[in-house]
From TrEMBL:
<dbReference type="InterPro" id="IPR014721">
    <property type="entry name" value="Ribsml_uS5_D2-typ_fold_subgr"/>
</dbReference>
<dbReference type="InterPro" id="IPR025158">
    <property type="entry name" value="Mg_chelat-rel_C"/>
</dbReference>
<dbReference type="InterPro" id="IPR003593">
    <property type="entry name" value="AAA+_ATPase"/>
</dbReference>
<dbReference type="InterPro" id="IPR004482">
    <property type="entry name" value="Mg_chelat-rel"/>
</dbReference>
<dbReference type="InterPro" id="IPR027417">
    <property type="entry name" value="P-loop_NTPase"/>
</dbReference>
<dbReference type="InterPro" id="IPR045006">
    <property type="entry name" value="CHLI-like"/>
</dbReference>
<dbReference type="InterPro" id="IPR000523">
    <property type="entry name" value="Mg_chelatse_chII-like_cat_dom"/>
</dbReference>
<dbReference type="Pfam" id="PF01078">
    <property type="entry name" value="Mg_chelatase"/>
</dbReference>
<keyword id="KW-0547">Nucleotide-binding</keyword>
<protein>
    <submittedName>
        <fullName>YifB family Mg chelatase-like AAA ATPase</fullName>
    </submittedName>
</protein>
<feature type="domain" description="AAA+ ATPase">
    <location>
        <begin position="211"/>
        <end position="394"/>
    </location>
</feature>
<comment type="similarity">
    <text>Belongs to the Mg-chelatase subunits D/I family. ComM subfamily.</text>
</comment>
<dbReference type="InterPro" id="IPR001208">
    <property type="entry name" value="MCM_dom"/>
</dbReference>
<keyword id="KW-0067">ATP-binding</keyword>
<dbReference type="Pfam" id="PF13541">
    <property type="entry name" value="ChlI"/>
</dbReference>
<dbReference type="Pfam" id="PF13335">
    <property type="entry name" value="Mg_chelatase_C"/>
</dbReference>
<dbReference type="InterPro" id="IPR020568">
    <property type="entry name" value="Ribosomal_Su5_D2-typ_SF"/>
</dbReference>
Length: 513
């Protein structure tokens, strides 16, 4: 006797279809699992046996062989419990229409209950792409997987419910999706108007948020860099359905979803400490998991005290910032995680923090300054679109003024620019100006003759690189969108150039510049 049940195996972000083939033959009672199963799956034998018996089903007293096909690919995860148990209990029964194009995922408790699993959404997405139309899954994973609109979902709470549904003894219609209620994650009491002065920095942040440009905030301690950065999520454009799906998929694969937070409805905001390791930032492990840059996908990665990060860690940002994805290679293969995020970095200008401050004297020696500056990689800084100096606030500006730019005003400007970009890039995989490639810049960024001459003069006089040249055009494209104009003019280029003011600030002493 033999049965076949469909499920999936998760490797990184991708899921492959797996057929659980169960065979029973006369012989000494035993249960053998084959097909490159990891320890979690091999230990499932005892969980499955107890779950079947405690669900008032007899466990076959014969030789049982379970093959996870294809046998040549490694498999891991506790979600194989339910399909293996269902395969055992359906031995000898006729295959019903309900089992066609139906997959099962779920972990079993010893009493037969079906428990929450990690990676339910990427598993469901992989199954859908391979022709599966129905999915039996734990109730606790329902809200997460319900983001998929074209997959029939049948949530179950126990092994018995699963078997009765398969055999047609339990009538249950597919889950009817409800309208998602917008969840407020960010603290709505914080506002940009709480930040005294710094209107120039707020303008730069508006530009960065509107076009999804990376931004570096450089200034003395206490000037408001961290306050500004923590308020950026409040003005970011709302996530589209596709962006929510991508973000939730990553968090599901990382095992960071829960019943309290079943899906990602707002742009992620990740703020790792400067002692973070390379694997924690980029992702890694024996079976690679997403790192902080991937958890910030479609959101914000905030690196506070940027100068205190290990240079070997920040150097790893070079390729992900350009490609929008990171590939982790292992002996058995490679895994790719998306990481298209907005990088926000905040740093002091030197070790003591007062280099260039009008009110304080920098106490750093030449050696200390040189060591500190060596922590800022030129190639990494060049990949950050906007460099902003955040000056200390003088005493006369300490009183709040009603004219201070508020979160609501900044959000309205960002929303207007985001709508223009959405219309412009309809039908492409581009969402924001900051994601444009060099070829796309030529198509979507028309520059007037005067603006083109001005930019070329700046390119020569400021000794800009080609990467910086195109980044200025992308930032100018966003500034033009904020102004509601289709063509990039000279004053858009001029404003974009002023956001590269720190390019020459960190030229090494004594190098002739």
């Amino acid at each position: 006797m033999m049965s076949k049940i469909f499920t999936a195996s998760l490797l990184g972000m991708e899921a492959d279809l797996v057929t659980v083939e169960t065979d029973i033959q006369p012989g000494l009672p035993a249960m053998n699992l084959v097909g490159l199963a990891d320890t979690t799956i091999k230990e499932a034998k005892e969980r499955i046996r107890a779950a079947i018996l405690n669900s008032d089903y007899p466990f076959p007293k014969h030789r049982i062989t379970v093959n996870l096909s294809p046998a040549g690919r490694p498999k891991e995860g506790s979600h194989f419990d339910l399909p293996i148990a269902v395969g055992i209990l359906l031995l000898g029964s006729e295959r019903t229409a309900r089992q066609e194009k139906t997959a099962f995922i779920g972990e079993l408790a010893l009493d037969g209950k079906v428990k929450h699993i990690r990676g339910a959404l990427p598993l469901a997405m992989g199954l859908r792409e391979r022709g599966i139309r129905r999915l039996v899954l734990p109730y606790e994973n329902l809200e997460e997987v319900a983001l998929l609109r074209d997959l029939e979902l049948y949530p179950v709470r126990s092994l018995r419910e699963s078997i009765e549904w398969c055999l047609g003894r339990r009538e249950q219609s597919a889950y009817k999706r409800k309208k998602k209620v917008k969840r407020k994650i960010m603290d709505q009491t914080i506002d940009f108007c709480d930040v005294v002065s710094q209107e120039n920095a707020k303008r730069a942040i508006t530009v960065a948020a509107a076009g999804n440009h990376g931004i570096l905030l450089m200034g003395s301690p206490g000037s408001g860099k961290t306050m500004l950065a923590k308020r950026i999520p409040a003005i970011m454009p709302e996530m589209s359905y596709t962006e929510q799906l991508e973000a939730t998929r990553i968090y599901s694969a990382a095992g960071l979803l829960s019943q309290a937070c079943p899906y990602i409805g707002e742009r992620p905001f990740r703020m790792p400490h400067h002692t973070i390791s390379r694997a924690a930032l980029i992702g890694g492990g024996n079976r690679p998991r997403p790192g902080e840059i991937s958890l910030a996908h479609n959101g914000i990665l905030f690196l506070d005290e940027f100068g205190e990060f290990d240079p070997q860690v920040t150097e790893l940002l070079r390729q992900p910032l350009e490609d929008g994805q990171v590939t982790i290679n292992r002996a058995w293969g490679s895994v790719t995680f998306p990481c298209r995020m907005m990088l926000v970095a905040a740093a002091n200008p030197c070790k003591c923090g007062y280099l260039g401050d009008d009110r304080h004297t920098c106490t750093c020696s030449e050696n200390q300054l040189s060591r500190y500056l060596s922590r800022f990689s030129g190639p990494v800084l060049e990949r950050i679109d906007l460099h902003i100096k955040v000056p200390a606030v003088p005493a006369q500006k300490l009183e709040k003024k009603t004219t201070a730019l508020s979160t609501a005003e900044m959000k309205a400007q960002v929303r207007q620019a985001a709508m223009l970009q959405k219309e412009r890039y309809k039908g492409t995989d581009i969402c924001f100006n900051g994601q444009l490639t060099q070829r796309q810049i030529q198509s979507y960024c028309p520059v007037t003759a005067s603006a083109n001459r001005f930019l070329k003069e700046a390119y020569e006089k400021l000794a800009l690189s080609m990467r910086t040249y195109y980044k200025i055009i992308k930032v100018a494209r966003t500034i033009a969108d904020l102004h509601g104009t289709d063509t990039i003019d000279a004053y858009h280029i001029a404003e974009a150039l002023q956001y590269r003011a720190l390019d020459r600030f960190y030229r090494r002493p004594g190098n002739g510049n």
